[in-house]
Design a protein that fits this description.
This protein is of the alpha+beta class and about 130 residues long. The chain is about 20% helix and about 40% strand. The chain is built from two helices and six strands. Strand 5 and strand 6 form a beta hairpin.
Length: about 130
């Protein structure tokens, strides 16, 4: 069992690559440091993606999130960095990362980063009665 953070995102083969389906994950204990003050910033990360050939492995995602704990980063930069790293590792059809940061200076910040595979279009929305 690893007791160290890691920047490596492991993946495993998508068990149903012929289907579009959505995976949703919540990472409620994300932390990084304010690059101006060095004080900790806390956030909940909501990850949603439509996998193509690979899914992210949960333990590696947990260790990856941990790797930001002692790093200074602006909210916008860290959210986009994580979205880029996840997109590079999985190459999903679609990915949305929503980072909801706790209050800093009386202001809550939410950053939403999306990545889309060229040429992929979602199925039409179905509204059920």
């Amino acid at each position: 069992m690893s007791t160290q953070p890691s920047r490596i995102l492991e993946t495993f083969p998508n068990p149903k690559p012929e289907l579009d389906y959505t995976v949703r994950m919540t990472i409620p204990e994300f932390t990084c440091l304010c690059p101006k003050t060095g004080q900790p910033d806390f956030a909940t990360l909501d990850l949603e993606f439509v996998p193509d050939r690979a899914n992210v492995e949960l333990k590696s995602l947990k260790l990856y999130a941990w790797s930001f704990r002692d790093r200074g980063a602006f909210h916008e930069a860290v959210t986009n960095e994580i979205a880029d790293d996840l997109a590079a590792a999985m190459q999903p059809r679609y990915l949305r990362l929503t980072a909801k940061f706790n209050v800093r200076g009386g202001i809550y910040t939410t950053v939403v980063a999306t990545r889309r595979k060229p040429g992929w279009n979602p199925e039409p929305t179905v509204t059920l009665p």
